[in-house]
Amino acid sequence: MAALRPVLMIIDDDPLITDTLHFVLSKHFEVCVAESYAQLKSLLQQQDSMPALALVDLGLPPSPHTPEEGFKVISALLAHSPTIKIHVLSGQSDDANVKRALTLGAVDFIAKPCDVEKLKDMLLQSLKVQDVELNEVKAELEFDGLLGDSLPMQALRMQITQFADSPFPVLIEGESGSGKELVAGSFHHASKRVLHPYLSVNCAAISPLLAESILFGHTKGAFTGAIAAHAGYFEDASEGTLFLDEIGELPLELQAKLLRVLENGEYQRIGETQTRKSQARIVAATNRDLRAEVRAGKFRSDLYHRLSVFAVHVPPVRDLGDDKHLLREHFTQFYAQQIGQAPFVLDEAAQARWLDYKFPGNVRELRNIVIRLIAKYSGKTLNATQLVAEFDLSEPESSGSSGEPLNINDAAGMTAQAQRHLQRQANVSLDSVLKSWERAYIEAAMQMTHGNLSQAAKLLNVNRTTLYSRMSTTDEN
Ligand SMILES: Nc1ncnc2c1ncn2[C@@H]1O[C@H](COP(=O)(O)OP(=O)(O)OP(=O)(O)O)[C@@H](O)[C@H]1O
Fold it and tell me: Which residues carry this modification: 4-aspartylphosphate (predicted)?
């Protein structure tokens, strides 16, 4: 029997491109094509298995001249298949779009037109990395791979230990890519349930039509196509842990059924009158603001209160201080060894920039940067400029997706932003805030002028010599 080929999703509205790619790539991959975000969503609901790879165009209908639809596609693919490797293939390749796509979780950006053979090699390389990661996930499940010694991580570990053996549900909140799934696994491993199953359901990935049967099971003949009786996740989890990822995506009708299980453990298979009892512990996670979803009528408030008896917050990477180095060192050693390439090293200035960077895409972004750096700088020492080329500095003071652009003519807005910064972060240094703004503007001007010092100086309204000397001092810092 022929081995199953990995599924590659191509999301592009240009038939010439999709036909060519289909022709070349279908020797290696099972190729599925969608022309828009809406078509992708319905295609994903029909998929039995998770796609391994995706090639995403940014400009898609109904607004093909802006990248927004493509950005939506990246988030939807990752919500559906967290281990997917997304390569962006787009003509809208200006720096801001590249950075935004990478921050959202894409692993690479290829500008159109591209060399299809090279593209194929990149996809095959991504498959290798994915293979390594899937093995890593297995290892993590065995050894609890939550890294970090910073205070927020110590506090998180303490909460995990404290709540591990409670029978009540846990709600894990945190930004995308911050490690919620890993935390869910840690809850199971720290508990007495560790010898029982740990099952994970991604609520964003299950079709609303099948969700009830997937969670609660069905009897034979309960609906067309139910040719045999089937146990759902609640039953299969028995006395173990059932992890409901992306709980904010659960359809409203099912929220009522979930509430019932949480209240008294009772549920029924579809088509059955007998009531069953669930012994499983529920751990749920979301990167949405569930309180806002409750206010908007999209999430039941009684379910929210049930779920959030114990709520833990996974800290974003920007709050982890020196853990950023720890995570970089861990991923560098791990991937360099697995991929069989020499690790890279950061010089002192680059290390300082690494520590300063906010990683809006959290650990997922940090890990993808490491993988790209190994590919580009294996065995080399990087300086700050080489490193910063990988960063998304479009929102220097951003806190994830909520950062606002800075308007220097709006004094009140700037004061409010400074106030939020001071409230959020201890030990703010005015000097380093000013320095990081200076650095960000210099870097932006240099990038926009493709490294032309005279043009960058003009853009910043300083003379060339002043810019040069400021660059030297910011680099030293
Ligand atoms: N503290 C950590 N130590 C080691 N690896 C981590 C840590 N946090 C996250 N990771 C790794 O980063 C990647 C992203 O983490 P994970 O999938 O758990 O994030 P998430 O919060 O569930 O994301 P999403 O909201 O998009 O589902 C995973 O490969 C995970 O193993």
Answer: 57
In sequence order, which residues have a C-beta less than 8 Å from that of residue 297 and are 6 or more positions away? none
Distance CA 450, CA 393 (A): 16
Whether ipTM exceeds 0.85: yes
Q: pLDDT by residue (tens digit) across 174-209? A: 999 999 999 999 999 999 999 999 999 999 888 878
What pLDDT score does 400 carry?
39
Secondary structure letter of residue 444 according to DSSP: H
* Residue ranges of E strands in 389-443: none
Classify residue 42 by burial, with Cβ atoms within 10 Å: 0-12, 13-18, 19+: exposed
Among 363, 365, 369, the mutation site with the greatest number of ligand 1 atoms within 8 A of its Cβ is: 363
Q: Angle formed by the axes of helices 430-448 and 464-476, to 10°?
A: 130
Of the candidates 304, 360, 444, the one whose C-alpha atom is nearest the C-alpha of residue 471 is 444
Q: Which residue ranges have their beta carbon within 6 Å of ligand 1?
A: 78, 82, 145-148, 174, 176-182, 287, 363-364, 367
Q: Which domains does the chain have, with CATH numbers?
A: 7-139 (3.40.50.2300), 151-314 (3.40.50.300), 405-477 (1.10.10.60)
HEC assignment per residue over 52-113: CEEEECCCCCCCCCCCHHHHHHHHHHHHHCCCCEEEEEECCCCHHHHHHHHHHCCCEEEECC
